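Quick one: structure tokens for this chain, please?
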Amino acid sequence: MSGAFPAAKNYPTLRVSVDRGVANAVIDNPPVNVLDVQLMTDVLQFLKAIRDDTSVRVVVFSSADPDFFIPHVDMTLIDEPTAFDELASEAPEGLNVFQAFGEAVRHQPQVTIVKLAGIARGGGAEFVTAADMAFAAAGEARLGQVEALMGITPGGGATQYLGRRLGRNRALELLLGGDLIDAEAAERYGWINRALPADELDAFVDRLARNIAALPDGVIKAAKVAVPAVDLSEGFVREHEAWAGLFVLPAAEKLIRGGLERGAHTREGELRLEDLLRDSWQELKGQPNV
């Protein structure tokens, strides 16, 4: 299929425009772009729609919200355990729904680029790591894996992506430390390609995306085949078992609910979510069955 994808298409949480081989996909899921069922569905449907469209060569993901890219998976889903069932039924064997989401991004035939200007943590940070490239605004963008503060470990690929990319020591620092790091530190660690001055980010990514999209036929495919996405299947099984084993414990539910009660999913709360979750844990300490 060539040229079949329309020049512009909107999904409920994703605005897409295509120009000269570059699809710009803008995440727009108010109030703070949480990774909920609708956003996951929209991204997966979009990627599937363009997968075989040879007129689209590069996808640039960004956010309509300058403060948040994707702050984490929707925490209110703790009360809707079947919400992901439909998406889970479509996940490849051996992957949970969150791992399948990251792998869909990682194995997309087009080059995928994240342009990061706000916060990406949890499932949002996994999305950034799954993309082929990521560029972030210095002084503004921040990344983190917050799951430990919820009493769990990441279940959407972070343990495998970060372990491979950063090394075990730095991966454990990020997975267990629970703090956001700035774009400059993320660049030094190798989590992202570059931290750029905020006023240069758009122009740099736009130029890179257009240059890649203008390459001769076959070059992008050959490069992605020559630098393959490493098979992480065994690691994903271990990751899922670790995540699922913790998720059913009382601490996880109480910490997630405590975070919501303290302001998670609100703009003010999301800017200091790590502190909210630590406060929740301090309150829970000493309670029975935690």
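The two ends are 54 Å apart (CA to CA).
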